[in-house]
Amino acid sequence: MAWIPFYAHEWNKYYVRFRNKVPLPFMAKLPGDYVAEQVYATFFSDPTGGWMMDRYGEDTFMWSNDYPHAASTWPHSRQVIADELGHLPQHVIRKVVRENVINLYDLKIDGINT
Question: pLDDT tens, 22-33?
Fold first, then answer.
């Protein structure tokens, strides 16, 4: 997920640089704004992305342990979350490890949805 903010920044830069010089599609916002609002990404181990999340992705990034694949964080998932996301506020961790996916797919889970 760490690559997403970089590319959103680059798309913004080039859209602004060239929008008056070459025909580009009209957008009411910068490309990166659309990415931040509409592109959801999953990850299971991305320390760099975790450190960037205080500035980008708390509403659209979704943690996964990738079980049962060989690259899975299982059975050490809780430790990976603590190591890579533990510096974030608890409300951000809750979003990333469960609430974002619940909201994206409009899942009905007892005790979470109101």
Answer: 887 788 999 999
